[in-house]
Design goal:
- A 7-stranded antiparallel sheet has the order 4-5-8-9-15-11-12, with no helix packed on it.
- The chain is an all-beta fold.
- The chain has 2 domains: 49 residues, no CATH class; 167 residues, no CATH class.
- It has 1 helix and 15 strands.
- Keywords: Hydrolase.
Length: 243
């Protein structure tokens, strides 16, 4: 969106509240995430006051360009449902150390190409899609493609909180057929750490993909889309009645 973002969260680990940061269009400048102690931290960073005027300002992304240009990858395995924060996702399991997968829900199809350093028997990953209205603590329409580690090898725990991962992804490419230009990429590594920008990129055709070949212990990666025009009318903002 071409803006700097400063986010300061209340630090209260008993209520699972932590995480503050200063973010620029081209990079995460500084952030703090700590669920182990009760001490806060002051974050300081120097920012460009007009980031859109800078030569490092990221080019515009067509978030569905690549995903709409390819057919969904065929698979003999069945999809399965799973919940993430009260939203029912459609998942498919990553059973091998390398592969191509697609999973679809309504109008959203998510595509993943990946390569793990090794496929561990004690860790299970799944590719998930959600295309729908989120209705808990607010109502807003989301389109999400995500690759995540399940809490245990039991597929019923896919979407449950998890804090560490030993499986490392050497290559990955995640994309989706989004109907919005408001898509936010994220990669969270073991220990709930943000992936350094040098290890991934967002291509102009909408792929979140690895670069430099550094194996990453991924907890979750996602393309988080907001479809504002599908939000329900807010109180007092409904259609006007003619007198």
């Amino acid at each position: 969106m071409g803006v700097n973002l400063l986010a300061a969260n209340t630090h209260n680990t008993s209520m699972h509240m932590t995480g503050s940061g200063i973010y620029a269009p081209e990079a995460v400048k500084v952030y703090h995430y700590d669920m182990e102690t009760e001490s806060g931290q002051l974050l300081l960073s120097e920012l460009k006051s007009w980031p859109r005027r800078e030569p490092t300002y990221p080019a515009a992304v067509d978030w569905s360009a690549y995903a709409r240009s390819v057919k969904p990858f065929s698979s003999e395995q069945s999809d399965f449902p799973g919940m993430i924060y009260f939203d029912e996702f459609t998942f498919t399991e990553l059973k091998r150390n390398t592969g191509n997968h697609s999973v679809c829900q309504k109008d959203l199809c998510c595509h993943l190409t990946y390569k793990m350093s090794e496929k561990r028997a004690d860790e299970v990953y799944a590719l998930g899609a959600f295309d729908g209205l989120h209705t808990v603590e607010g109502q807003y329409y989301l389109q999400i493609c995500t690759l995540l580690k399940c809490q245990t090898p039991d597929l019923r725990t896919c979407g449950e909180p998890v804090g560490s991962a030993f499986t490392k992804f050497e290559e990955f490419s995640l994309s989706g057929t989004f109907s919005t230009r408001y898509v936010f990429p994220q990669i969270i590594l073991s220990g709930s750490q943000l992936a350094p920008e040098s290890h991934y990129e967002v291509s102009r055709d909408g792929r979140l993909r690895s670069q430099n070949g550094v194996p990453l212990p991924v907890l979750v990666m996602a393309l988080y889309g907001r479809v504002f025009e599908k939000d329900p009318p807010r109180l007092g903002q409904g259609p006007r009645k003619l007198q």
